[in-house]
Amino acid sequence: MTESDPQLERIRKLLAKAEDPAVTEAEAEAYNQKAAELVARYGIDQAMLAASGAGSDEIGTLKIPMNDPYSRDKASLLTSVAYPLRCRTLLHRLGQKVDSVTVFGFRSDIGRVELLFTSLLLQASTQLTRVRPDGFFPGESLAAYRRTWLHGFARAVHERLSRAEEEAVRTAVQGRGSAELVVRDRAQLVQHAFDAEYGGLRAAAPRRLSGSGYLDGHDAGTRANLDPSALTRRSRALPAR
After folding, report:
1. Do 80 and 154 contact (CB within 8 A), yes or no?
2. Can you give the residue ranges of the DUF2786 domain (predicted)?
3. Percentages (nearest 5) of helix, strand, coil residues in the chain
4. Model confidence over 13-26: pLDDT tens digits?
5. What count of other Cβ atoms lies within 10 Å of the Cβ of residue 228?
6. Cys-Cys with 77: which of 59, 154, 170, 189 at CB 3.0–4.6 Å?
């Protein structure tokens, strides 16, 4: 996804409209939804080009650093972006912290993951500076609220991207009957390669989070701007505890 990519440019224009304060919330959501659809369509196009021999796309990896605070929650957000886009993730931990995450998949899909994750991390960072517990649970810490807020945010993003990817495959099948098989084969190739490389590693135990921010975070995630142009912006750290 280069700077001159016409599909990327179209996505940027849609997102610029969505960010216009003059548009209504419903209009902004429509623009954002269309942007998510185009990101998914880009992935299908790259898969079809590679399958036809008109393009090259290889399985590879990208290691993305995670900074504290909330490094584990950032890693969860990255995984929530990666899996719908047919990539897998490996967390590199230092005690209770996540130092970095390796994204494993086809190069074009890894590019989509990196772009979307960077944008979503920026959006989450901005919103977390403002959100606070509503006081319904006396004594709840701000850190606990923010962790569950991020969990809800990541879940909503995962749901939106999954729907967009499924719809992109469905509509592509109508015009190109092999798209569903191509996507399925690519997903299996990634999983088999990942298992061959990392299959002996133990899966992390599920986390138990305390805090009341899940629903607020999920609501924010449903309205998040799926902005693939954010890779050109400088990343900002999530706020301190």
Report:
1. yes
2. 8-46
3. 60, 10, 30
4. 776 676 666 767 67
5. 24
6. 154
